[in-house]
């Protein structure tokens, strides 16, 4: 390319793709509801299975959904985002290492944060896995998204990082 000439940007591939349907509902699944909070990393599979059946029953044929957060997943119920808490996955290391007290510059707090995130990531995998395995809708999409990486609140808006 000659100096002083700018390349013409290629059109975005997404421009030809229809925009996804908006979020119709957000469902918060409490961590204590889906886990045995008093026992380290203990899932209540019967509760999770019941949730998957309920979400499947509300699905519209052929409908998809957007992404989820924090340990979350979207469901085939069009426009649904499922968000879940940590329950017994995350609270144990966070408490043991004093994550809530900080500061993050403390090596013990950083270790606790790391162990807590790893534990919550396990739960997110179980939730997403149950949704993928149990989906009974046509074309339903399930996407797990770690909340710590994907969403931040700034001035009342929910931006998505670049």
Commentary on this structure:
This protein has one domain: 3-Layer(aba) Sandwich (Carbamate kinase), CATH 3.40.1160.10. The chain contains five helices and three strands. Helix content is 34%, strand content 8%. Strands 1-3-2 form a three-stranded mixed sheet. Strand 2 and strand 3 form a beta hairpin. The N terminus is likely disordered. Helix 2 packs across helix 4. It is mainly alpha-helical and 162 residues long. 31% of the residues are buried.
Which SSEs are present, and which pair or pack?
Elements: E1 25-29, H1 31-34, H2 45-57, E2 72-74, E3 80-84, H3 91-96, H4 107-134, H5 147-150
Parallel strand pairs: 1-3
Antiparallel strand pairs: 2-3
InterPro entries: AceGlu_kinase-like_sf (IPR036393)
Protein name: Isopentenyl phosphate kinase
Helix and strand pattern: EHHEEHHH
Query: What fraction strand?
Result: 5-15%
- Can you identify the CATH class? Alpha Beta
Largest sheet: 3 strands, mixed
Spatial order of strands in the largest sheet: 1-3-2
Number of strands: 3
Distance between the first and last residues' Cα: 28 Å
CATH topology title = Carbamate kinase
CATH homologous superfamily, by name? Acetylglutamate kinase-like
Helix content: 25-40%
Low-confidence stretches: 1-19, 62-76
Assigned CATH architecture: 3-Layer(aba) Sandwich
Query: How would you sum up the global shape?
Result: elongated
Provide the structure class.
mainly alpha
Rg for CA atoms: 19 Å
Number of helices: 5
Mean pLDDT: 73
Number of domains: 1
